[in-house]
């Protein structure tokens, strides 16, 4: 607990320092600003060596005396203030909650400090990078989603939980899964399986796939939230478990895998804490339709959005490997995409009893 | 004109035809049934007069309207079967005779602005007021003029009520009786504190057309021909049978005289039907003119209102009382105690004299040589200049002025020489412009009255005015919804009038010459306030301080303003129209002889010299306006910025205070202090950007100029 205090103290000091810089520059007759690393594709780099998406060095100055920036500047400090209060009060809250905490009407106008949560969320991310503090360190969490079961025992804020005995719903993955919240007690898992969708994960849980295969299964409800990604990263790095990713055969599925593998553009500054460069893509591959004899009638025709997305991905530096180019090009060529559920055409438990075991046995995955 | 007057006078001795006799008799007849006397008498062409009365005042080139229609009408029943000789030259000669000027105008009264009862009302008032103002100025008296319109229909019904109301500027009577709808009988009263009229002159002034002091001189005045007031008297006489009633007194201790004057329309001579001395009159000196006319107050009042408003605007030295049926007395107080500079009579300027006129002048000259002729006949010709002209003309041998009058080639040589010689501008003391400062004061007091005229008077007000009020109320509602913007710092030229900010700019151009007549153009504008922003600007045209209300499209003034590219001055302007924006534009032409397109003096002719001056003045005003609009845009922008920053400073100071554990107030003060400095620095950038933008606009090829070339 002493360590937690140290981290919190440090974060609070960072916020204070930010505020004091502003006061100093105002007193010195200078237009005060907050320096924020830019979070966009232009300012991220794919680090080939570490196989991670990393934030570049471009920074943007957010001035107060600038009509276009004044509001955001003000919002940054409203959020800073609220976070400092949370930290000092030892409380954690959701980003939606923070939106409500900081939202109020300005003066006698009809203007609000924030009109939508869409306004406050990016400010939080700005603050994270500006302070070089993690969201968790600001005592904030995103909405939680994702669940997990497997032959592992963990300790969650003091409660010991056996993830073998979580029933049909599994253990809900919290948003903050740092060491001070989640501890791994013991396990006998051989690998981790991250599944894109809840429905497919339920199939795996019901079939007790994890018991048979001795693996941890997780799902993130589409694009996995930070909590799930961080947890997978921790399981991988701390327990030295390989990670397999099972997603739909569509650009979106590929992107989920890619984010899990090398991080996302928006959260590039957290890639090293979130990404698992060794994660393996076990399906659904563009070539599985022939390998597993999937009829065309279970396919979905790709629309323009899918095609554009696929072509974009072809250009991403982290998809330059030959096997990935082949994979995506095949998808574009056929113009078809498949959901994981398409495998159920071959039998309801085809995916757990034949498909995945065969994939793993044949080492038929992509990296 | 002068020659026509002479012929009219000569017409006396000629025998009169039956038709004309009947007409003359009717004039003397009792008034009661005589509605449109002129129309009833014209047997030969029964429908002609009423039709003309209603028709638009198109220029009518034929000057002998009385004869030809009559002849045709008589012959018409005989079917045109064979090409038979209808009348011999002798027969025709028996019908050819002189037409008196008053007869001519009886039939062509639209030329004088009496087209219809609503316009006649205005013209009557206008002629009388113009005379009053001219007289006051000439006599050096600060004018105080009362304009009164009485509705006889209303008063006769009210007389039956127990308490008849004297129109005296008190509370309007309870609305039991109704105002006359449409045409009806009205009395127009104009009273001034002018010098008065000597007893002997009064009949001729009011009862003879083309009689006056202003025709034969080159001097700036409102009246020019000496037709106006007598035409109004004639109109009254024709429509109601009532003579014009005049009360006048020339000074303290002198008796006041009362006249009733009729016009013998055939002979163009006054007939005094009543002449008595009054024991008492409330004016020390002055003239009161009463005219009973058929008019349409309902339709015509908006013109009258406008005329009165604009007269007050262009005559800031005059106090005008305006009394209307069923209305409170409206007074336009004078904005200055200073009389306009007296206009002086001048000789023509050599530049602008046309060849024919030059020959005529030379023929009449009593000078012995050309040099003397030039010096005596023209203004601004010194001995030196005359020598220069003569030298340039390079006459062979001795040339007398008389020779010039006879020999076209000689005259042409001289004319060219004059054109090539640099001659000083004509003396400007002959002109009496309103002047920058007074035009501004006139505008301010005009806007004051216009803003005061509350919405309760909407139905009675000028229709344009009413829509303006509506727009302004809508705008006010919009303003109320928007956040309060702090008052911009006071700016030069901006006047706050009844809570509205108006930017006022005025320009008086130096005098220029057209056809030897000096003239001067003044332009003033009032921008902003409660003028509607989405409508074309209001264009107020004036000539020698007289508002021009009709024929806007035919007026050179309008064309000059339309051809000015107002986009340069940050107003929008649809192709070929007036600019759009919250603005009233005043254009005044002062001249010893304003070239009107007709005797009704409704539109100024399109002389390129005049148009150019108007455009130059408008452009000069426009530049001032653009500077103001730009400044206003900056001020708005600055206010908006300040507003934003001040709002956010509060929040930021609060948050930073909490974070750092310090009091937010000093932090806030530091921020506000900085806000001023930063805003200024950034404003400079915005200024530069706006300047750039306006430069780009100016660089655009200007359509108006291309057309001129």
CATH architecture of the largest domain in chain A: 3-Layer(aba) Sandwich
- Whole-number radius of gyration of chain B? 31 Å
Q: What is the top-level CATH class of the largest domain in chain B?
A: Alpha Beta
Main sheet of chain A: which strands, in order across? 10-7-13-12-14-15
* Average pLDDT level of chain B: 76
Any idea what the radius of gyration of chain A is? 23 Å
What is the H level of CATH, i.e. the homologous superfamily of the largest domain in chain B? Answer: Histidine kinase-like ATPase, C-terminal domain
Looking at the structure, what is the overall shape of chain A? globular
Helical fraction of chain B equals 40-55%
Helix content of chain A: 40-55%
Which two chains share the most extensive interface?
A: A-B, 29 and 24 residues
Q: Architecture of the largest domain in chain B, according to CATH?
A: 2-Layer Sandwich
Regions of chain B with pLDDT < 50 over 5+ consecutive residues?
1-76, 163-170, 454-489, 698-709
Structural class by helix and strand composition of chain B: alpha+beta
Looking at how many chains there are and whether they match, the oligomeric state comes to heterodimer
Instruction: Specify the number of helices of chain A.
Output: 13
How would a textbook summarize the main sheet of chain B? 8 strands, mixed
> H/E series of chain A, N to C?
HEEEEHEHHEEEEEEEHHEHEHHEHEHHEH
Rounded mean pLDDT of chain A is: 89
Let me know the number of strands of chain A: 17
């Amino acid at each position: 607990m002493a360590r937690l205090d140290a981290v919190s103290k440090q974060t609070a000091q960072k916020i204070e320092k930010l505020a004091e810089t502003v006061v100093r520059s105002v007193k010195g007759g200078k237009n005060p600003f907050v320096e924020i690393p830019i979070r966009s594709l232009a300012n991220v780099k794919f680090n080939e060596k570490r196989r991670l998406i990393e934030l570049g060095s471009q920074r943007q100055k957010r001035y107060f005396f600038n009509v276009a920036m004044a509001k955001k500047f003000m919002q940054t400090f409203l959020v800073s203030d609220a976070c400092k209060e949370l930290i000092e009060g030892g409380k954690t809250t959701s980003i939606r909650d923070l939106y409500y905490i900081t939202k109020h009407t300005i003066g006698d106008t009809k203007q609000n400090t924030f009109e939508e949560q869409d306004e406050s969320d990016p400010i939080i991310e700005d603050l994270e990078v500006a302070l070089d503090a993690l969201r968790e360190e600001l005592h904030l969490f995103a909405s939680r989603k994702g669940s997990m079961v497997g032959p592992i025992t963990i300790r969650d804020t003091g409660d010991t939980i056996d993830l073998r005995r979580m029933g049909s719903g599994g253990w809900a993955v919290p948003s903050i899964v740092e060491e001070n919240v989640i501890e791994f007690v013991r396990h006998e898992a051989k690998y981790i399986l991250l599944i894109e969708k809840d429905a497919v994960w339920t199939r795996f849980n019901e079939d007790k796939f994890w018991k048979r295969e001795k693996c941890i299964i997780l799902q993130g409800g589409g694009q996995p939230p930070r909590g799930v990604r961080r947890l997978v990263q921790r399981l991988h790095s701390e327990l030295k478990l390989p990670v397999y990713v099972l997603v739909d055969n569509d650009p979106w599925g590929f992107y989920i895998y890619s984010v899990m593998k090398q991080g996302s553009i928006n959260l590039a500054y957290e890639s090293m804490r979130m990404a698992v460069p060794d994660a393996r893509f076990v399906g659904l591959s563009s070539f599985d339709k022939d390998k597993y004899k999937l009829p065309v009638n279970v396919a979905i025709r790709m629309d323009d959005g899918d095609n554009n997305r696929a072509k974009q991905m072809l250009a991403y530096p982290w998809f330059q490997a030959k096997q990935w180019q082949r994979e995506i090009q095949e998808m574009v060529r056929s113009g078809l995409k498949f959901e994981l559920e398409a495998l159920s055409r071959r039998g309801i438990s085809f995916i757990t009893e034949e498909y995945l075991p065969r994939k793993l046995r044949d080492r038929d995955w992509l990296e | 004109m002068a020659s026509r007057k002479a012929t009219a006078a000569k017409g006396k001795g000629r025998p009169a035809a039956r038709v004309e006799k009947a007409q003359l008799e009717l004039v003397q007849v009792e008034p009661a049934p005589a509605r449109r006397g002129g129309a009833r008498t014209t047997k030969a062409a029964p429908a002609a007069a009423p039709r003309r009365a209603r028709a638009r005042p198109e220029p009518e080139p034929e000057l002998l309207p009385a004869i030809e229609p009559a002849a045709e009408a008589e012959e018409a029943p005989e079917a045109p079967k064979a090409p038979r000789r209808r009348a011999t030259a002798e027969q025709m000669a028996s019908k050819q005779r002189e037409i008196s000027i008053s007869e001519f105008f009886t039939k062509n009264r639209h030329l004088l602005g009496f087209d219809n009862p609503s316009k006649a009302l205005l013209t009557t008032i206008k002629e009388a007021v113009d005379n009053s103002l001219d007289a006051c100025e000439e006599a050096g008296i600060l004018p105080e003029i009362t304009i009164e319109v009485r509705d006889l229909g209303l008063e006769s019904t009210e007389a039956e009520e127990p308490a008849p109301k004297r129109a005296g500027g008190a509370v309007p009577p309870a609305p039991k009786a109704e105002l006359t709808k449409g045409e009806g009988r009205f009395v127009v009263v104009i009273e001034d504190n002018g010098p008065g009229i000597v007893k002997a002159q009064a009949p001729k002034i009011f009862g003879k057309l083309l009689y006056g002091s202003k025709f034969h001189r080159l001097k700036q005045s409102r009246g020019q021909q000496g037709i106006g007031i007598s035409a109004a008297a004639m109109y009254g006489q024709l429509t109601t049978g009532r003579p014009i009633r005049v009360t006048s007194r020339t000074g303290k201790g002198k008796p006041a005289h009362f006249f009733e004057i009729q016009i013998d329309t055939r002979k163009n001579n006054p007939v005094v039907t009543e002449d008595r001395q009054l024991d008492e009159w409330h004016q020390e000196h002055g003239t009161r003119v009463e005219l009973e006319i058929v008019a349409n107050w309902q339709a015509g009042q908006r013109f009258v209102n406008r005329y009165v408003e604009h007269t007050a605007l262009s005559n800031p030295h005059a106090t005008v009382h305006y009394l209307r049926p069923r209305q409170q007395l409206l007074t336009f107080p004078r904005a200055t105690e200073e009389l306009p500079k007296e206009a002086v009579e001048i000789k023509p300027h050599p530049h602008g004299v046309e060849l024919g006129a030059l020959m005529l002048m030379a023929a009449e000259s009593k000078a012995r040589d050309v040099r003397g002729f030039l010096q005596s006949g023209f203004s601004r010709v010194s001995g030196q200049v005359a020598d220069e002209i003569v030298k340039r003309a390079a006459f062979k041998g001795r040339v007398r002025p008389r020779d010039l009058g006879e020999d076209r080639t000689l005259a042409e040589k001289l004319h060219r020489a004059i054109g090539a010689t640099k001659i000083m501008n004509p003396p400007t003391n002959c002109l009496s412009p309103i002047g920058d400062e007074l035009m501004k004061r006139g505008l301010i007091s005009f806007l004051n009255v216009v803003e005061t005229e509350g919405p309760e008077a909407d139905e009675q007000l000028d229709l344009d005015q009413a829509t303006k009020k509506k727009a302004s109320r809508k705008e006010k509602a919009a303003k109320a919804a928007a956040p309060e913007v702090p008052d911009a710092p006071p700016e030069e030229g901006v006047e706050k009038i009844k809570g509205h900010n108006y930017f006022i700019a005025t320009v008086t151009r130096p005098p220029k010459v057209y056809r030897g007549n000096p003239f001067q153009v003044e332009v003033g504008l009032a921008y902003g306030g409660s003028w509607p922003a989405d409508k074309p600007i209001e264009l107020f045209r004036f000539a020698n301080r007289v508002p021009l209300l009709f024929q806007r499209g035919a007026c050179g003034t309008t064309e000059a303003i339309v051809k000015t590219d107002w986009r340069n001055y940050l107003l929008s302007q649809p192709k070929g129209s007036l600019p759009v924006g919250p603005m009233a534009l005043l254009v005044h032409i002062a001249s010893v002889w304003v070239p009107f397109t007709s005797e009704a003096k409704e539109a100024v002719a399109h002389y390129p010299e005049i148009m150019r001056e108007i455009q130059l003045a408008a452009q000069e005003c426009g530049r001032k306006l653009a500077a103001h609009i730009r400044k206003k845009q900056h001020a708005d922008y600055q206010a908006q910025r300040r507003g934003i920053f001040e709002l956010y400073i509060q929040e930021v100071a609060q948050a930073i205070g909490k974070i750092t554990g310090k009091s937010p107030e000093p932090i806030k003060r530091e921020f506000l202090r900085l806000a001023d400095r930063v805003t200024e620095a950034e404003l400079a950038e915005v200024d530069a950007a706006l300047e750039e933008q306006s430069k780009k606009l100016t660089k655009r090829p200007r359509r108006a100029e291309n057309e001129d070339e």
